[in-house]
């Protein structure tokens, strides 16, 4: 199973009432992961799943209505790169809510965002000064091609400055119980933006409760007026059956990172599964790290798609 999994603490997955998310005990003591006469249904489920945890970095997985399936790789904060944009989008939607299908207000592209669109040293979305784009469109440019310039533009629009917006991001993280997370920018470019797989899993659950964010992260591509051709989503895991999000992140210090969401099962018996994989092939190239994060996340999704329905049936029988 790779390295021994360490089961998540109750703080990592919050109780949300019927049909919500159930926090699990730590389970890191003697006999962790082995069923006993007093084993909970969640512990019994974990014992029936042999998940292919990554051999490096961190990972965490949870199932809606069930709870944590485990954590691997420790709990020290690590750089998360553009996975930070999930909090940027979440904060924007907290401050400026949209209903499903709504476009929201038009926002004017400023000179800074337009100039940064030509950067050769970071990911950027092709926008022009004076262009007016809706909030929804900018969220697409933030999350699909991972535009750092759009992250900073949205931060300035929301809070007046990136610094003020980042302070909001950190207050929101604290309110969600993300105690090992610190954002230092809206884009995730800075290696000082750090978190853990457990903390980012908490955010993933909240993000997927936002209908517009959930719509956007499932998109394969988007367009922007004046730019030829579509802009592809960097999350190629969307090509796998059942995968419906969420966000990639890669840099030399961070390696490859992926926050993902998938629906597992068939018919009415479908479960939302969320996962976070961080620190794959860190200190290599961003491209190599991202390939590793996508591959190792794919293995987890494949195993869950194959084994979770029968494991749930056994536990509930």
Automatic annotation (TrEMBL):
Annotated GO biological process: cell wall organization; peptidoglycan biosynthetic process; proteolysis; regulation of cell shape
Q: Where does substrate bind?
A: 247
User: Which GO MF terms are attached to this record?
Assistant: serine-type D-Ala-D-Ala carboxypeptidase activity
Pfam families named among the record's database cross-references: Peptidase_S11
Q: Any idea which UniProt keywords this protein has?
A: Cell shape, Cell wall biogenesis/degradation, Hydrolase, Peptidoglycan synthesis, Signal
Name the domain of life this protein comes from: Bacteria
> Where does the record place the Peptidase S11 D-alanyl-D-alanine carboxypeptidase A N-terminal domain?
76-273
| Active site per database record | 82 (acyl-ester intermediate), 85 (proton acceptor), 146
Family membership noted in the UniProt record: Belongs to the peptidase S11 family.
Can you name this protein? Answer: Peptidase M15
Which organism is this entry from? Streptomyces showdoensis
Give the source lineage, highest ranks first.
Answer: Bacteria, Bacillati, Actinomycetota, Actinomycetes, Kitasatosporales
